[in-house]
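Sample intake sheet
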Amino acid sequence: MVEAVRGGSSLRAVARKFRVSLGTVQRWVHRAGSADLNRVEWTDRPSIPHTFHRTSPEVEARVLDLRRELRDAGALGEYGAVAIHRAWPIATGGPPPAIRTIGRILERRGAFDGQRRVRHPPPPRGWYLPTVARGEADCDCFDIIAGLVLQDGPEVEVLTGLALHAGLPEAWPEEAITTGRVHSALQARWRAVGLPTYAQFDNDTRFQGPHQFPDIVGRVPRLCLQLGVVPVFTPLQDPSFQAALENFNGRWQAKVWSRFHHPSLTVLQARSAAHIVAVRQRGTSRAVEAPPRRPFPTPWEFDPGITPSGHVIFLRRTNAQGAVTLLGRTFAVDPHWPHRLVRAEVRLPDGPIQVFALRRRDPHAQPLLQELPYDLPTRRRRLHD
Protein backbone atom coordinates (compact mmCIF):
# COMPACT_ATOMS: atom_id res chain seq x y z
CA MET A 1 0.00 0.00 0.00
CA VAL A 2 2.79 2.41 0.89
CA GLU A 3 4.66 1.54 -2.31
CA ALA A 4 1.52 2.21 -4.38
CA VAL A 5 1.06 5.60 -2.73
CA ARG A 6 4.68 6.49 -3.35
CA GLY A 7 4.15 5.43 -6.96
CA GLY A 8 1.62 8.22 -7.43
CA SER A 9 -1.75 6.58 -6.58
CA SER A 10 -4.14 8.46 -4.32
CA LEU A 11 -4.87 7.26 -0.81
CA ARG A 12 -8.51 6.54 -1.68
CA ALA A 13 -7.57 4.60 -4.81
CA VAL A 14 -5.16 2.44 -2.80
CA ALA A 15 -7.84 1.85 -0.13
CA ARG A 16 -10.30 0.66 -2.79
CA LYS A 17 -7.67 -1.53 -4.45
CA PHE A 18 -6.68 -3.34 -1.24
CA ARG A 19 -10.24 -3.24 0.19
CA VAL A 20 -9.28 -1.51 3.41
CA SER A 21 -10.40 1.72 5.00
CA LEU A 22 -8.86 5.06 4.18
CA GLY A 23 -7.66 5.35 7.78
CA THR A 24 -5.69 2.11 7.45
CA VAL A 25 -3.81 3.41 4.43
CA GLN A 26 -3.14 6.73 6.17
CA ARG A 27 -1.81 4.96 9.25
CA TRP A 28 0.70 2.83 7.37
CA VAL A 29 1.84 5.72 5.17
CA HIS A 30 2.41 7.79 8.27
CA ARG A 31 4.26 4.86 9.89
CA ALA A 32 6.61 4.53 6.89
CA GLY A 33 7.25 8.24 6.49
CA SER A 34 10.13 8.80 4.06
CA ALA A 35 12.22 5.82 5.24
CA ASP A 36 13.30 2.91 3.09
CA LEU A 37 10.51 0.30 3.10
CA ASN A 38 13.01 -2.41 4.08
CA ARG A 39 13.90 -0.49 7.24
CA VAL A 40 10.35 0.27 8.47
CA GLU A 41 9.03 -1.61 11.54
CA TRP A 42 5.80 -3.14 10.17
CA THR A 43 4.77 -5.15 13.23
CA ASP A 44 1.52 -3.98 14.86
CA ARG A 45 1.72 -1.98 18.06
CA PRO A 46 -0.63 -2.46 21.04
CA SER A 47 -2.78 0.50 22.03
CA ILE A 48 -1.77 0.28 25.71
CA PRO A 49 1.09 2.49 26.88
CA HIS A 50 4.60 1.03 26.89
CA THR A 51 5.41 2.43 30.31
CA PHE A 52 3.43 2.59 33.53
CA HIS A 53 3.87 5.35 36.07
CA ARG A 54 3.00 3.88 39.45
CA THR A 55 3.67 5.61 42.71
CA SER A 56 6.60 4.07 44.56
CA PRO A 57 5.97 2.08 47.74
CA GLU A 58 8.00 4.66 49.69
CA VAL A 59 5.66 7.48 48.66
CA GLU A 60 2.58 5.38 49.46
CA ALA A 61 3.99 4.59 52.91
CA ARG A 62 4.73 8.29 53.50
CA VAL A 63 1.15 9.21 52.52
CA LEU A 64 -0.24 6.73 55.04
CA ASP A 65 2.16 7.91 57.76
CA LEU A 66 1.26 11.55 57.15
CA ARG A 67 -2.44 10.72 57.26
CA ARG A 68 -1.93 8.96 60.58
CA GLU A 69 -0.02 11.95 62.00
CA LEU A 70 -2.68 14.43 60.89
CA ARG A 71 -5.45 12.25 62.29
CA ASP A 72 -3.81 11.73 65.70
CA ALA A 73 -2.10 15.06 66.31
CA GLY A 74 -3.19 17.56 63.65
CA ALA A 75 -4.63 20.75 65.10
CA LEU A 76 -7.11 21.15 62.25
CA GLY A 77 -8.46 17.62 62.57
CA GLU A 78 -8.47 17.05 58.80
CA TYR A 79 -6.57 14.15 57.24
CA GLY A 80 -8.03 13.55 53.80
CA ALA A 81 -6.29 13.82 50.44
CA VAL A 82 -6.47 17.63 50.37
CA ALA A 83 -5.08 17.94 53.91
CA ILE A 84 -2.21 15.52 53.09
CA HIS A 85 -1.41 17.44 49.91
CA ARG A 86 -1.32 20.70 51.89
CA ALA A 87 0.88 19.29 54.66
CA TRP A 88 3.30 17.36 52.42
CA PRO A 89 5.81 20.20 51.65
CA ILE A 90 6.13 21.06 55.34
CA ALA A 91 6.56 17.44 56.41
CA THR A 92 8.92 16.29 53.62
CA GLY A 93 10.37 19.43 52.10
CA GLY A 94 9.54 18.24 48.59
CA PRO A 95 6.73 18.61 46.06
CA PRO A 96 3.60 16.61 46.95
CA PRO A 97 1.86 14.05 44.74
CA ALA A 98 -1.32 15.19 43.05
CA ILE A 99 -4.47 15.23 45.16
CA ARG A 100 -6.05 12.59 42.93
CA THR A 101 -2.95 10.40 43.30
CA ILE A 102 -3.14 10.69 47.09
CA GLY A 103 -6.83 9.79 46.93
CA ARG A 104 -6.12 6.69 44.85
CA ILE A 105 -3.41 5.64 47.31
CA LEU A 106 -5.82 5.98 50.23
CA GLU A 107 -8.50 4.03 48.36
CA ARG A 108 -6.07 1.30 47.27
CA ARG A 109 -4.75 0.87 50.82
CA GLY A 110 -8.23 0.89 52.44
CA ALA A 111 -7.57 4.07 54.41
CA PHE A 112 -11.05 5.60 54.19
CA ASP A 113 -13.06 5.98 57.38
CA GLY A 114 -16.43 6.44 55.69
CA GLN A 115 -18.62 3.47 54.90
CA ARG A 116 -20.19 3.11 51.48
CA ARG A 117 -23.92 3.56 51.53
CA VAL A 118 -25.78 0.28 51.35
CA ARG A 119 -28.65 0.64 48.91
CA HIS A 120 -31.56 -1.66 49.61
CA PRO A 121 -33.93 -2.60 46.80
CA PRO A 122 -37.29 -0.79 47.02
CA PRO A 123 -40.21 -2.77 48.40
CA PRO A 124 -42.84 -3.98 45.91
CA ARG A 125 -45.92 -1.92 45.12
CA GLY A 126 -48.35 -1.99 48.00
CA TRP A 127 -45.85 -3.89 50.16
CA TYR A 128 -47.92 -3.19 53.29
CA LEU A 129 -50.84 -5.21 51.83
CA PRO A 130 -49.60 -8.77 51.20
CA THR A 131 -52.01 -9.68 48.39
CA VAL A 132 -51.23 -6.42 46.55
CA ALA A 133 -47.48 -6.96 46.97
CA ARG A 134 -47.81 -10.44 45.44
CA GLY A 135 -49.77 -9.05 42.48
CA GLU A 136 -52.92 -10.94 43.40
CA ALA A 137 -55.05 -7.84 44.10
CA ASP A 138 -55.10 -4.17 43.17
CA CYS A 139 -55.49 -1.03 45.25
CA ASP A 140 -57.03 2.27 44.08
CA CYS A 141 -55.44 5.31 45.75
CA PHE A 142 -57.25 8.66 46.06
CA ASP A 143 -56.12 12.15 47.02
CA ILE A 144 -57.17 15.81 46.73
CA ILE A 145 -55.05 18.58 45.19
CA ALA A 146 -55.95 21.89 46.83
CA GLY A 147 -54.83 25.51 46.55
CA LEU A 148 -55.28 25.98 42.77
CA VAL A 149 -56.89 29.29 41.76
CA LEU A 150 -58.13 30.25 38.30
CA GLN A 151 -57.34 33.80 37.17
CA ASP A 152 -60.29 36.01 38.12
CA GLY A 153 -62.11 32.84 39.01
CA PRO A 154 -62.83 30.42 41.85
CA GLU A 155 -60.44 28.23 43.80
CA VAL A 156 -60.14 24.76 42.30
CA GLU A 157 -59.70 21.40 43.97
CA VAL A 158 -58.89 18.20 42.10
CA LEU A 159 -59.84 14.70 43.23
CA THR A 160 -57.29 12.29 41.78
CA GLY A 161 -57.14 8.51 41.63
CA LEU A 162 -54.64 5.87 40.55
CA ALA A 163 -54.43 2.08 40.76
CA LEU A 164 -51.11 0.70 42.03
CA HIS A 165 -50.99 -2.08 39.43
CA ALA A 166 -53.39 -1.13 36.65
CA GLY A 167 -52.65 2.60 36.60
CA LEU A 168 -56.02 3.88 35.28
CA PRO A 169 -55.49 7.49 36.45
CA GLU A 170 -58.36 9.84 37.18
CA ALA A 171 -58.65 13.59 37.82
CA TRP A 172 -61.85 15.47 38.65
CA PRO A 173 -61.33 19.28 38.87
CA GLU A 174 -64.14 20.97 40.78
CA GLU A 175 -64.76 24.21 42.64
CA ALA A 176 -64.99 22.20 45.86
CA ILE A 177 -64.52 18.51 46.58
CA THR A 178 -67.09 17.36 49.10
CA THR A 179 -67.82 13.96 50.56
CA GLY A 180 -70.79 13.70 48.20
CA ARG A 181 -68.55 14.45 45.20
CA VAL A 182 -66.09 11.77 46.34
CA HIS A 183 -69.02 9.37 46.64
CA SER A 184 -70.25 9.97 43.10
CA ALA A 185 -66.73 9.94 41.61
CA LEU A 186 -65.85 6.59 43.19
CA GLN A 187 -69.08 5.02 41.98
CA ALA A 188 -68.53 6.36 38.44
CA ARG A 189 -64.97 5.05 38.32
CA TRP A 190 -65.80 1.62 39.65
CA ARG A 191 -68.80 1.23 37.35
CA ALA A 192 -66.48 1.93 34.42
CA VAL A 193 -63.35 -0.09 35.34
CA GLY A 194 -64.55 -2.53 38.00
CA LEU A 195 -64.05 -2.90 41.72
CA PRO A 196 -60.57 -3.22 43.26
CA THR A 197 -59.81 -5.21 46.38
CA TYR A 198 -58.61 -2.14 48.31
CA ALA A 199 -59.25 1.62 48.19
CA GLN A 200 -56.60 3.78 49.85
CA PHE A 201 -57.12 7.28 51.26
CA ASP A 202 -55.33 9.75 53.46
CA ASN A 203 -56.92 11.02 56.69
CA ASP A 204 -58.85 13.93 55.17
CA THR A 205 -62.26 14.20 56.82
CA ARG A 206 -63.89 14.02 53.37
CA PHE A 207 -62.53 10.49 53.12
CA GLN A 208 -62.42 9.16 56.65
CA GLY A 209 -65.21 11.15 58.32
CA PRO A 210 -65.15 13.61 61.23
CA HIS A 211 -62.33 13.26 63.76
CA GLN A 212 -63.87 14.98 66.78
CA PHE A 213 -65.80 11.89 67.90
CA PRO A 214 -64.59 8.32 68.48
CA ASP A 215 -65.88 5.27 66.62
CA ILE A 216 -66.97 7.19 63.51
CA VAL A 217 -67.27 5.37 60.20
CA GLY A 218 -67.83 7.98 57.48
CA ARG A 219 -69.82 7.74 54.27
CA VAL A 220 -66.83 6.90 52.05
CA PRO A 221 -65.66 3.85 54.03
CA ARG A 222 -69.31 2.77 54.29
CA LEU A 223 -69.57 2.95 50.50
CA CYS A 224 -66.46 0.80 50.17
CA LEU A 225 -67.69 -1.77 52.67
CA GLN A 226 -71.08 -2.11 51.00
CA LEU A 227 -69.29 -2.81 47.68
CA GLY A 228 -66.89 -5.33 49.23
CA VAL A 229 -63.87 -3.00 48.88
CA VAL A 230 -61.52 -2.76 51.86
CA PRO A 231 -60.83 0.91 52.77
CA VAL A 232 -57.21 1.64 53.75
CA PHE A 233 -56.17 4.83 55.57
CA THR A 234 -52.53 5.90 55.42
CA PRO A 235 -50.41 7.01 58.40
CA LEU A 236 -50.63 10.54 59.70
CA GLN A 237 -47.86 12.81 58.32
CA ASP A 238 -46.29 10.01 56.27
CA PRO A 239 -46.86 10.71 52.55
CA SER A 240 -44.64 7.85 51.33
CA PHE A 241 -47.60 5.45 51.17
CA GLN A 242 -49.22 7.76 48.59
CA ALA A 243 -45.98 8.21 46.61
CA ALA A 244 -47.31 6.75 43.35
CA LEU A 245 -50.36 9.01 43.45
CA GLU A 246 -48.31 12.05 44.51
CA ASN A 247 -46.11 11.42 41.49
CA PHE A 248 -49.17 11.45 39.25
CA ASN A 249 -50.44 14.61 40.97
CA GLY A 250 -47.16 16.34 40.15
CA ARG A 251 -47.35 15.25 36.52
CA TRP A 252 -50.96 16.43 36.22
CA GLN A 253 -50.07 19.85 37.58
CA ALA A 254 -47.08 20.12 35.21
CA LYS A 255 -48.80 18.79 32.06
CA VAL A 256 -52.28 20.27 32.55
CA TRP A 257 -52.49 22.98 35.19
CA SER A 258 -49.19 24.82 34.60
CA ARG A 259 -48.96 24.15 30.88
CA PHE A 260 -51.98 26.19 29.74
CA HIS A 261 -53.95 29.27 30.65
CA HIS A 262 -57.42 28.15 31.72
CA PRO A 263 -60.05 30.84 31.24
CA SER A 264 -62.71 28.79 33.02
CA LEU A 265 -63.28 25.65 35.02
CA THR A 266 -65.02 24.08 32.02
CA VAL A 267 -61.91 24.49 29.87
CA LEU A 268 -59.74 23.02 32.65
CA GLN A 269 -62.04 20.01 32.94
CA ALA A 270 -61.91 19.41 29.18
CA ARG A 271 -58.11 19.61 29.05
CA SER A 272 -57.81 17.35 32.09
CA ALA A 273 -60.13 14.77 30.52
CA ALA A 274 -58.08 14.76 27.29
CA HIS A 275 -54.87 14.29 29.29
CA ILE A 276 -56.35 11.38 31.24
CA VAL A 277 -57.45 9.66 28.02
CA ALA A 278 -53.94 10.02 26.56
CA VAL A 279 -52.26 8.70 29.70
CA ARG A 280 -54.59 5.71 29.82
CA GLN A 281 -53.90 4.90 26.17
CA ARG A 282 -50.18 4.89 26.85
CA GLY A 283 -50.64 2.56 29.83
CA THR A 284 -52.95 0.06 28.16
CA SER A 285 -50.54 -2.86 28.56
CA ARG A 286 -50.14 -2.12 32.26
CA ALA A 287 -53.91 -2.26 32.75
CA VAL A 288 -54.15 -5.55 30.85
CA GLU A 289 -51.47 -7.21 32.99
CA ALA A 290 -52.99 -6.00 36.29
CA PRO A 291 -54.96 -8.27 38.65
CA PRO A 292 -58.60 -8.76 37.58
CA ARG A 293 -61.33 -6.56 39.04
CA ARG A 294 -64.81 -7.52 40.13
CA PRO A 295 -67.74 -6.14 38.13
CA PHE A 296 -69.85 -3.44 39.74
CA PRO A 297 -73.10 -5.01 41.05
CA THR A 298 -76.30 -4.19 39.22
CA PRO A 299 -78.75 -3.15 40.42
CA TRP A 300 -77.14 -1.47 43.43
CA GLU A 301 -77.85 1.54 45.59
CA PHE A 302 -75.99 2.96 48.57
CA ASP A 303 -77.87 2.53 51.85
CA PRO A 304 -76.58 4.84 54.62
CA GLY A 305 -78.61 3.01 57.26
CA ILE A 306 -76.81 -0.34 56.96
CA THR A 307 -74.50 -1.18 59.84
CA PRO A 308 -70.90 -1.12 58.49
CA SER A 309 -69.59 -4.65 58.13
CA GLY A 310 -66.23 -5.85 56.89
CA HIS A 311 -62.55 -4.96 57.20
CA VAL A 312 -61.14 -1.44 57.56
CA ILE A 313 -57.35 -1.08 57.54
CA PHE A 314 -55.41 1.69 59.26
CA LEU A 315 -51.70 2.13 58.58
CA ARG A 316 -50.26 3.82 61.63
CA ARG A 317 -47.03 4.56 63.48
CA THR A 318 -46.87 3.68 67.17
CA ASN A 319 -46.02 6.27 69.81
CA ALA A 320 -43.21 6.11 72.37
CA GLN A 321 -45.20 3.60 74.45
CA GLY A 322 -45.93 1.35 71.48
CA ALA A 323 -49.60 2.37 71.23
CA VAL A 324 -51.61 3.39 68.15
CA THR A 325 -54.50 5.80 67.68
CA LEU A 326 -57.35 4.88 65.35
CA LEU A 327 -61.11 5.41 65.28
CA GLY A 328 -60.56 8.18 67.83
CA ARG A 329 -59.19 5.75 70.46
CA THR A 330 -55.73 4.73 71.63
CA PHE A 331 -54.86 1.04 71.79
CA ALA A 332 -51.78 -0.45 73.49
CA VAL A 333 -49.96 -2.72 71.03
CA ASP A 334 -46.38 -3.55 72.02
CA PRO A 335 -43.99 -1.51 74.20
CA HIS A 336 -41.09 -3.11 72.31
CA TRP A 337 -42.32 -1.65 68.97
CA PRO A 338 -42.17 2.13 69.61
CA HIS A 339 -42.27 4.66 66.77
CA ARG A 340 -42.68 1.84 64.23
CA LEU A 341 -45.15 1.19 61.42
CA VAL A 342 -48.07 -1.17 61.91
CA ARG A 343 -51.11 -2.32 59.94
CA ALA A 344 -54.27 -2.42 62.05
CA GLU A 345 -57.08 -4.50 60.53
CA VAL A 346 -60.43 -3.68 62.14
CA ARG A 347 -63.28 -6.11 61.64
CA LEU A 348 -66.58 -4.25 61.89
CA PRO A 349 -68.86 -4.18 63.70
CA ASP A 350 -67.79 -6.57 66.49
CA GLY A 351 -64.01 -6.79 66.17
CA PRO A 352 -61.37 -7.85 66.76
CA ILE A 353 -58.51 -5.53 65.78
CA GLN A 354 -55.41 -7.34 64.53
CA VAL A 355 -52.19 -5.32 64.53
CA PHE A 356 -49.28 -6.44 62.32
CA ALA A 357 -45.70 -5.13 62.34
CA LEU A 358 -44.39 -3.47 59.17
CA ARG A 359 -40.78 -2.91 58.07
CA ARG A 360 -39.82 -1.48 54.68
CA ARG A 361 -36.45 -3.27 54.72
CA ASP A 362 -38.17 -6.60 55.21
CA PRO A 363 -41.61 -6.15 53.63
CA HIS A 364 -42.40 -9.87 53.59
CA ALA A 365 -42.14 -10.27 57.39
CA GLN A 366 -45.35 -8.89 58.93
CA PRO A 367 -45.86 -10.75 62.23
CA LEU A 368 -48.97 -10.33 64.32
CA LEU A 369 -48.18 -8.09 67.30
CA GLN A 370 -51.51 -7.93 69.08
CA GLU A 371 -55.16 -8.87 68.77
CA LEU A 372 -57.47 -6.44 70.53
CA PRO A 373 -61.18 -6.65 71.29
CA TYR A 374 -63.39 -4.01 69.69
CA ASP A 375 -67.11 -3.41 69.35
CA LEU A 376 -68.54 -0.52 67.33
CA PRO A 377 -70.99 1.21 69.72
CA THR A 378 -74.60 0.99 68.63
CA ARG A 379 -75.01 4.77 68.74
CA ARG A 380 -72.14 5.12 66.26
CA ARG A 381 -73.45 2.56 63.79
CA ARG A 382 -75.66 5.19 62.17
CA LEU A 383 -74.29 7.34 59.35
CA HIS A 384 -71.95 10.23 60.09
CA ASP A 385 -70.84 12.68 57.37
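Comment: The first strand starts at residue 139 and ends at 149. The two ends are 92 Å apart (CA to CA).
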